[in-house]
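I had to read the description of the data format several times before I understood it. For illustration, here is how one protein appears when written out as sequence plus structure tokens:
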Amino acid sequence: MASDYYSLLGIPYSATPEEIRAAYFQFARTLHPDVNADPGAHELFLTIQQGYEVLANAQMKEAYDASLPAELFFAPEISASIKYSQTVIPCSDEPQLVYVLIELVCTAEVNKNNLPLSHVCLVLDRSTSMQGQRMDMVKSSALNLLQQLRSQDILSVVAFSDRAEVLIPPTRASALSKSDHRISLLQTGGGTEILQGLSKGLEQLRQTDVSALRHLILLTDGHTYGDEAGCIQLAKQAALENISISVIGIGDEWNDDLMDQIASLSGGNALFVTTPRDMDNFLMQKLVDIESVYARSLQFDFVSAPDVKLKYTFRLNPNIGPIGVESPILLGDIQYRKSVNFLLEFIVPPILKESSVFSLARGQIWMDIPSRTPTRNRVFVDLNRPTVIQAEPEASPAVIVEAMSRLTLYRLQEKVRLEVSEGQIDKATKHLHYLATHLLAHGDRELAHTVLIEAEHVQQSRRFSGEGEKRIKYGTRALMLPPGPELKS
């Protein structure tokens, strides 16, 4: 076979007729002899035209596909389960909220001989504020991580303050000492410029082949100054390169809003830690997750129906947190025999007549599967409900009720933070007491106690305490437990 027409057109082997047609016309607009006199362009256009003629004809496409290796057309071992807050949407002259819970389940069995190489880069804040117990905690956790790496895995370590240096260049774990002195002897000093650390960390990860699973873990206790836009841009670039970024925030002075954004943009997550055990547990779990990835860089590429608005999206499992509403939505990785769950909140416009299908959104969840060729694949998602003039009262599925209930508590603390920032102290205090009451009802006594203490602090000082604010934010976020059991090993 002279040409791979799918690769030539830049489309997946599972491309729909619409996608085949769209890809051809996109090339035609730039390569057709009427618009491009370059002889090379003309020759390429003829080949693309030949490919389009084959793939656009059902019988010719079937014969052509049969000539290709069967493994090119494999379906990913991931299924999508979709649950709605209601089976039908009642007609109404008012907008309505519809919730959709999507669970992606990987059924593939782990093949330990076929797991991709992983490269973890630790980016450690060594600014002056990290001196003492915080730096000791970071060193201890980094050294503990060394002992858990597989011998074939790669580690690099970057330290930064107002400049960045490479402590350990990309090195196989088998060649590293379990008590590496380059980490043990790390000293603090200087200001905090996170852009410096991120840039140097990404440089190390780029030295590893793109087929590897590459993850940057940033540990910091402070605000960065003047380079926030640069940090966000780097996170976007990392996502394009299939590099995820996770953040461990230490203490109460770090910029959680910025760190959440960096992590979300790259498919990672941010965590607030107060004890060495918290940090060790996060790093160990992150390592386990990285080393058991089936598919990476999942992203939901979708188009909402006219006048339907996606208002809120929250990833429930793993890497809990809000993940944005603009297509494509980054979902992170999925491990063998595990799941990814996320909740969508749609605002539906007024509906005045009955129909068998009312579309909310449709698209596909793309993924890279490192152990397969080709690596790029997808799962189609079509979100819709019928509409009726008058709907019978019904209860939402229990998993959605539970997810919505806990999400409400998380969003309530978001509302309180906004109220405090706007000086609406009485409203904020009232909502904090409301939040504490509901946390008690959920059995979260410790977090409820923290909320009540913070309500008193807000009332007296007209602001949050640094630690209290983060405990409430990440505590309510941690309530978002997986809505269903994982597959059994």
Observations:
- The first helix runs from residue 5 to 9.
- The chain has 14 helices and 16 strands.
- The longest strand covers residues 355-368.
